[in-house]
Specification:
This protein is of the alpha+beta class. The protein is 44% helix and 11% strand. It contains 13 helices and nine strands. It is extended and about 90 Å long.
Length: 374
């Protein structure tokens, strides 16, 4: 974060190196500004005055000092610049590159042949007598299921755009008009083309602000009704890109890969988890265990499995097994018998398919506790 401008705090008390405040004994405005710098880990880089009267009014603040270099101030009188503020020059030592569009494959449900798929899925095995190993049964079932899906549901490649969700066709069309005007202005630098370019730039700024306001009104309170819309906005404002290799640190250990981060998060959660015998006893008193029925005595019916498949959320992404909830919904009648047999066998034997214990987990930052620990 880099902040530059005229903060107009001539009496603010700076440290000897002029990078931080020395005390909170100024006005309420100066105290608030000092708190702002401390809370955001901001450092000030300009040395000496920035006004011809000898005051330091213009500031250069950054929370990552390694990127700021070659900071200098020049008196406006030296360059005959019509201002009473000094000119501030500095380098930002960063290399910027355009984000690449993310290409990914997904099922093309519009061109899928669900009738043929349903016929194929009816042939999935529903007899567990040939094997007591639930992992073998699940592996065979999944392979046959995915093979049938590959035959009947084509794939398509989609590209995720780098634009925020409120940048629609109208905005993109205005941006194209602006760049056409810019090319014309570079070819023929007339006053008319300059005014045209300025007018289009102002129009785009107003349009983007309006689109952003409209989008915020649309997602306001949508976390319960339409959480997908809310999280799309969340990703857009954080410029989230799949494949980013962010490093996290906890207890002196750093992690970059997904597996290493998982172990690090697990170590942190274990360090803050507390439990006692009193807590367990209190929990048993409040929620006594029901032992009148064991899992092996429970038997699921075809209708129960079919109804559960039918109410799955089709907007959810596939898990590590690659099985789409949309397809399970469309073919709930056909896959319910084989899945029902699998579930009942799992209950009778007390065995759970190993692959079902895997999941794609994204930790969501909620409080500063872990951030400070890192």
């Amino acid at each position: 974060m880099v902040l530059v401008g005229d903060f107009n705090l001539p009496s603010f008390k700076w440290s000897l190196d002029e990078s931080t405040s020395t005390s909170l004994c100024g006005t309420a405005e100066e105290e608030a500004f000092s708190d702002l710098m401390e809370d955001n880990f901001l450092r000030q880089f300009i040395k000496g005055p920035t006004h011809i009267a000898g005051n330091k009014l213009d500031l250069l603040l950054c929370n990552f000092s390694e990127v700021i270099d070659h900071v200098s101030t020049t008196s406006p009188l030296q360059n005959e610049f019509p201002s009473d503020h000094y000119l501030v020059d500095f380098f930002i030592r960063l290399k910027f590159k355009r984000s690449k569009r993310v290409r990914r494959k997904t099922y093309d449900y519009k061109r899928a042949d669900f009738d043929d798929l349903g016929s194929r899925l009816q042939l999935l095995p529903s007899d567990m007598s040939h094997s007591d190993d639930v992992d073998i049964y699940w592996s065979r079932w999944k392979d046959l299921f995915l093979a049938a899906v590959a035959e009947c549901v084509p794939m398509k490649t989609i590209r995720d755009t780098n634009s925020p969700p409120w940048i629609d066709r109208e905005v993109k069309s205005a941006i194209r008009r602006k760049y056409r005007a810019l090319r014309k202005y570079r070819e023929n630098k007339t006053v008319e083309w300059k005014l045209k370019l300025r007018s289009l730039s102002n129009e785009i700024k107003k349009l983007v602000r309006q689109k952003h306001r409209d989008y915020l009104l649309k997602i306001e309170g949508s976390l319960k009704e339409n959480p997908k819309l809310f999280w799309n906005y969340h990703k857009a404002i954080l410029h989230h890109r799949p494949g980013s290799n962010t490093e996290i640190t906890f207890d002196g250990k750093s992690a970059k890969t997904a597996a290493e981060k998982t172990e690090l998060f697990n170590a942190y959660f274990c360090s803050v988890f507390t439990s006692s015998k009193q807590d367990k006893a209190r929990s048993l008193q409040m929620y006594p265990m029901r032992i009148n029925t064991e899992l092996c005595e429970i038997t699921l019916s075809f209708n129960e499995v079919r109804d559960c498949l039918f109410i799955l959320d089709p907007s959810k992404a596939t898990g590590p097994d690659g099985i789409s909830a949309h397809i399970l919904i469309e073919c709930s009648e056909q896959v319910a018998p084989s899945l029902c047999s699998l579930f009942n066998h799992s209950l009778r034997t007390g065995r759970f398919p190993s692959e079902w214990k895997s999941a794609d987990v994204t930790p969501v930052h909620k409080k500063d506790l872990f951030n400070r620990a890192c």
